[in-house]
Amino acid sequence: MSTSDSENLFSKEKELIEQSKKILHSKNSTLEEIKNSFLNLIEDYSHLVKDTQKLAKISDQNQNKLKKIQEELLVNNLILKEKNQNLTLISQIGKLVTSSLEIRDILLAIYQNIQDFIKIELLMFGQIDETSNSVKFKNILVKGEYLPGMLKESLNTENLSSLILTEQKEIISNNLELDFPNFKKNIDKQSGFDVQSIAYFPLKSHAELVGILAFQNSEKDSFREHQINFLRDMANFIAIGVDNANAYKKLSKRNKELRGTLEEIRNLNEGLEIEKQKSENLLLNILPYSIAERLKSGENTIADFFESATVLFADIVGFSKLSVEIGSPKKLVTILNNIFSNFDFIASSYNLEKIKTIGDCYMLAGGIPEPSEDHAERCALAAMDMLEQLKYVQEEVGTQVNFRIGLHTGAIVAGVIGKKKFVYDLWGDTVNTASRMESHGIAGKIHCSHAFYELLKDKFIFENRGEIEVKGKGIMNTYFLLGKINI
């Protein structure tokens, strides 16, 4: 009956009361009329009572339904709360499992987190060892403490591990003695206490069995259905953690092997680089850098024409006599090496190219292999520095030593000859003329051709030697380079 029905009943009741009042206060009605009115009123009231009883019955029924609904809601709320707690706990454990690669840390975290939800006295994890065809339980937690050593169960004998892996299904027992009496004694011995309830879960990763997760308690009926579901979900997380840990171990092993291989490769590369650098240095000791690069790029024949270049020859005067006076071949070579090493430094300082040494004669050139406009000036400065070295050489040798230096500028051909022993050499009349300038020069002087003089007469001081007879060249007007004009 609805609220409107209840309101109608109360209205009817008020109406009956008002009618009774009117009957009682009526002055014109006879006794018989009053009696009949009350009889009608009593009949109406009787109907009202019946309707009120119906309403009360319906109200009781609704109240019982409401109470039942409230009880169901309370139970559902508790279930929902428990499921939410389970979900939160599973989520927390899932994060712990997926963030760690150490099984010991994972198991300890699980044990510590589930104690408020389910009592666990023993927790252990075993991995399948295909080599020995067994399950090795290397990680065993009893009341929160790791047991030393390892438990090993052969898959060739009858035990819980072989049963689980053979049937590939979980084993749950709340009364071990009743369900698995043949295993009870051995399990008690392994665990160290009277085991009554067990929950063993096979761990699978990518449909492959990787191990077993086991729970044991000393009380019967330890594992309820919702707890078993929780442990089953947790076992799935453990399987992921084990798979991650195994993958990490394999990856670490592979990385270690790769690091070893890379180290070997690095050492080989360093060795190759050292040998390559030695080869580069040897090649650069023989050839100019740009010429060496051209050879390495595959250019077989190198012959370049230079319209203007300067060639310098420097010769030690009286070398034969000097070698006799020194006597020691080793000392003689040492002196030559020191002299020519200084010449090498001077040549490098002015970006000139050493061509070769011929006995006690040193040859360099400017304007090759890269053309330049100031090659004559740089050769002149180098020649002056060479003469400056005389006093140091004389101090070392202890006797009078002198140089003759010759310079000439003109067109030349430069290139590489040889296949096994490369030589970068110069050809042309310019080379011959520069050689004649040296051989027809005077000790301690820098003898220059007229062509060289014409290029530098405004920058350097020259002494006109006049016309002389030059072998193979005839009459030539030559000069002595004395110094640089200070501006």
Helix content: 40-55%
Order of SSEs: HHHEEEEHEHHEEHHEHHEEHHEEHEHEE
| Sheet of most strands | 8 strands, mixed
At the fold tier of CATH, the topology name of the largest domain is: Alpha-Beta Plaits
Structural class: alpha+beta
Radius of gyration: 57 Å
Low-confidence stretches: none
According to DSSP, the number of beta strands is 15
Question: Please, what is the CATH homologous superfamily of the largest domain?
Answer: Nucleotide cyclase, GGDEF domain
CATH class of the largest domain: Alpha Beta
Distance between the termini: 128 Å
- Number of domains as seen in the coordinates: 3
Short recap of the structure:
With 487 residues, this protein is α+β, with helices and mostly antiparallel strands. It has helices at 3-24, 31-99, 103-114, 160-167, 176-179, 181-191, 225-286, 289-296, 319-326, 329-349, 375-388, 390-397, 429-439, 450-456, and strands spanning 122-129, 134-142, 145-146, 151-154, 171-173, 197-205, 208-217, 303-317, 353-358, 361-366, 402-417, 423-427, 446-448, 460-470, 474-484.
Q: What does this protein structure show overall?
A:
There is one protein chain. Helices cover 54% and strands 24% of the residues. α2 packs antiparallel against α3. The chain has 487 residues and is of the alpha+beta class. The protein folds into 3 domains: 3-81; 102-243, Beta-Lactamase; 289-484, Nucleotide cyclase, GGDEF domain (Alpha-Beta Plaits, 2-Layer Sandwich). It has helices at residues 3-24, 31-99, 103-114, 160-167, 176-179, 181-191, 225-286, 289-296, 319-326, 329-349, 375-388, 390-397, 429-439, 450-456, and strands at residues 122-129, 134-142, 145-146, 151-154, 171-173, 197-205, 208-217, 303-317, 353-358, 361-366, 402-417, 423-427, 446-448, 460-470, 474-484.
